[in-house]
Amino acid sequence: MPDVMLKVDNLSVAYGGVQAVRDVSRQVRPGEIAALLGANGAGRSSTLLAIIGSVKPKEGRVVFEGRDITGTPPDQLVKQGIAMIPEGARVFARQPVEQNLRLGAYTVRDERVYRERLDKVYALFPRLKERREQLAGTMSGGERQMLAIGRALMSGPRLLLIDEPSLGLSPLLVEQVFDALAALNRDDGLSVLLVEQNMAQALEVA
Fold first, then answer.
1. CB-based burial label for 3 (10 Å; 0-12, 13-18, 19+)
2. Between β-strands 18-28 and 33-37, what pairing exists: parallel, antiparallel or unpaired?
């Protein structure tokens, strides 16, 4: 495995005539939690969207495990081992919790692997197991964030990109979410690129 898992070189993103990201370079090593910090409007989310292929960079390139993935569609990156949790804990509101998790495992063909990952998500977030038949849209903000993380984990990523996991959560739930990220990194070696405004919380785990 390369010494650098993710390498972003001189990345720039523009929306029409508006420059959102200018000449950003960043690396994430295997087994590392890296933080991308900054205020609203600083271009952090646009950087993640360019990495995941949701927007096309104006300049620069993105390399994952030695392969140039610049502009690769998000569904292809999931198959390569990258998952992203966008800002706002977006879930399938009209689907139950367990169906949301099943949808996160759309690349998994082996039912045994699916069950193993499901059990692991439920062990990480027992609340999701308790609510597995509940419609996702009726859950609290913290529960939806847990579900968004769990759904991303169902694809078996080696690199997790997560945008503003603390947004709108109570301090207690923020602590639970960051504890889960730290546990995934410590126990499973999951690499994480974290975008966060809560600098103190981010620097505790990064």
1. exposed
2. unpaired
SS3 87: coil
Name the H helices within the chain.
44-52, 74-80, 97-104, 111-124, 126-130, 141-153, 171-188, 199-205
Q: Given the DSSP bridges, would you call strands 6-15 and 18-28 parallel, antiparallel or unpaired?
A: antiparallel
Residue 171's identity, in one-letter code, is P
| CA distance linking residue 38 with residue 45, whole number of Å | 10
| Structure confidence by residue, pLDDT tens digits, 126-146 | 999 999 999 999 999 889 999
Question: Cα(71)–Cα(74) distance, rounded to whole angstroms?
Answer: 9
Contact 7, 27 (CB under 8 A): yes
Cβ atoms 78, 155 nearer than 8 A = yes
What global pTM score does this model have?
A: 0.90
Residues 6 or more apart in contact with residue 147 via CB below 8 angstroms: 89, 91, 97, 100, 101, 125, 128, 136, 139
Query: pLDDT-derived band of residue 1, with 50, 70 and 90 as boundaries?
Result: low
Instruction: Report how far residue 149's alpha carbon sits from residue 152's, in angstroms, rounded to the nearest whole number.
Output: 5
| CA–CA dist 166, 174 (Å, integer) | 5
